[in-house]
Amino acid sequence: MNCPWCDTTAGPRALQAHLCERHGDRVGTGTRDGRTFYATTCPQCGARHEQTVRKGTGDPEFLVEFGTEIRMVAFDRLIHHLIAEHDQVADRHAADEQNKVDDRREMER
Ligand SMILES: [Zn+2]
Ligand SMILES: [Zn+2]
Questions:
Q1: Whole-model pTM above 0.85?
Q2: 35-58 per-position pLDDT tens digit
Q3: Is residue 109 a part of any domain in this protein?
Q4: Quick check: is 58 in a domain?
Q5: Which DSSP helix (H) or strand (E) runs through 108?
């Protein structure tokens, strides 16, 4: 998979960690009608994914305390979106498999 914000390539899990580490500021949070929500916007198509956080509503400490958790969930959602909507390859072994195929071809020669 490719990071939508930079040229990092990684499997879904590694990409999720990368997104949290490098692009955590891409997850927006806020409150509406007394409920806390977080949102991600797909940089490729502008699709917005918003999800209400059930626990910690109205607690200003919540976003600080659970910021990492929220980002993990938000980016997980974005990764699924990238796979489903933008034909990103989810299999982290895809590149390795391709190399194996090449190796086999080498042996057949
Ligand atoms: Zn990146
Ligand atoms: Zn998209």
A1: no
A2: 888 999 999 999 999 988 876 556
A3: no
A4: yes
A5: helix 94-108
